[in-house]
Specification:
- By secondary structure, the protein is an alpha+beta fold.
- The chain folds into 2 domains: 148 residues, no CATH class; 225 residues, Phosphoenolpyruvate Carboxykinase, domain 3 (Alpha-Beta Complex).
- Helix 8 packs antiparallel against helix 9.
- The radius of gyration is 22 Å and the shape is globular.
Length: 388
């Protein structure tokens, strides 16, 4: 492994670090605040493996230096002003401003931090004016962006969807905003034998042993007013609007004052906090066995599943495929990604994975078992029980 001084733009004192690995890519995160690493580990795992590796291929370093941050601000943006795509969010890129500093410096106006890249793009320094918890989001986004491009180069596809495992079988829940994905996920996770995989970004990849494997890419989870009441432990969520930036220990230690959050505003929580709130375990991945498209219809009652044709599944799934943006934070380890690969995965799923529409009517979650109903329907509409 290259020496630290060979990779950065100035000598930095040794600081705590942790490596995150996924599908052959290892990313090292360095920060002077151990709680940053605790937060990353509890939210990136189990999708990522957290351990100390021999040779990380990418290094992300958080540097809290008010003077350096102020000096960069004074230099101002490059002329002409240029917006650079940095992060992929639900199919569109999160842009930062290119700054007048070498070699490559970008300013993230949302988080108030600078990203300084070395010439090879193998190292990113996150320059922050303070150690506020919002800087953890920058670290998460960088790790996720490197990993997303690496997975795409290997033929995996990211989907705007929720995912869970139920008794060894992976279920992908797909739909636009307000379709009921999170509500159906929470309800399903309350059943015995269910484990959390993802809430907003699922990863589907070919697997020689199980056909298609369903994994997740960790994201901050938004819970709308009204959905909070489905949670097993909603009380601690009222503690802070920005609890997503806290470790679970920090969130639980914050006084829960004020009115119940569910009555007034949308909540943003971390994957670890979400699983604590619904009292659910987590799993890295599962064999993909069914795709569900929820739809809210208050004119109907209960929860109803109906089988979709392969063409119908493809038509509904295609808009939710997340094509990776051509960002500056790429792994460049295994070749370029193309739209043809996304189409190939879609065709493969249409050929073998059963899909269902799930109508969420009034009192949809008052009784019954969503997963049990789904797999009963699967067994009824296929030639035999689907393998675990």
């Amino acid at each position: 492994m290259p020496k630290s001084s060979d990779l950065i733009f100035g000598d930095i004192p040794s600081m705590p670090s942790l490596d995150f690995s996924l599908a052959g890519l290892t990313i090292r995160v360095e920060t002077a605040d151990p709680s940053d690493l605790e937060w990353l580990e509890e939210n990136l795992t189990p999708s990522f493996c957290a351990a100390v590796a021999e040779s990380p291929l990418r290094i992300v370093t958080k540097i809290v230096d008010p003077g350096r941050h102020r000096a960069l601000l004074e230099r101002g943006p490059a002329s002409p002003v240029q917006q650079v795509t940095c992060f992929g969010f639900d199919g569109h890129g999160g842009a930062c401003t290119r700054w007048s500093a070498a070699p490559t410096t970008l300013y993230d106006d949302e988080l108030g931090v600078f990203y300084e890249l070395n010439e090879e793009g193998s190292r990113v320094e996150v320059v922050a004016p303070s150690a506020r918890p919002s800087t953890r989001i920058a670290l998460l986004r960088l790790v996720r962006e490197f990993a997303a491009h690496h997975l795409a180069a290997q033929g995996a596809v990211q989907i705007h969807a929720a995912a869970l495992e139920h008794n060894g079988r992976g279920i992908l829940i797909v739909g636009p905003k307000r379709a009921g994905k999170t509500s159906l996920l929470i309800h399903s996770l309350r059943e015995a034998g269910s484990l959390f995989i993802a809430n907003d970004r699922a990863v589907v990849s070919g697997d020689s042993q199980v056909g298609w494997r369903l994994g997740g890419m960790p994201t901050v989870i938004s819970i709308r007013p009204g959905t909070v009441e489905l949670l097993h432990r909603p009380g601690f969520l009222a503690a802070s609007r920005w609890s997503a930036r806290m470790t679970l220990t920090e969130a639980l230690g914050t006084p829960a004052d004020g009115p119940p959050a569910s009555a007034y505003r949308q909540l943003s929580i971390s994957p670890r906090q979400f699983c604590h709130a619904v009292d659910a375990g987590r799993v890295e991945s599962a064999p993909l066995r069914a795709i569900v498209f929820p739809r809210v219809d208050t004119r109907r009652d209960g929860l109803q599943f109906s089988r979709l044709s392969a063409a119908g599944m493809g038509e509904r799934l295609r808009p939710h495929l997340l094509d990776p943006a051509d960002t500056v934070f790429r792994s460049d380890l295994a070749g370029a990604w193309s739209t043809a690969e996304s189409a190939e995965v879609l065709a493969g799923l249409q050929a073998v994975i059963p899909a269902f529409e799930c109508v969420l009517g009034q009192q949809a979650f008052s009784s019954g078992s969503a997963c049990s109903l789904l797999f009963a329907e699967l067994d009824r509409t296929t030639d035999g029980p689907l393998p675990s």
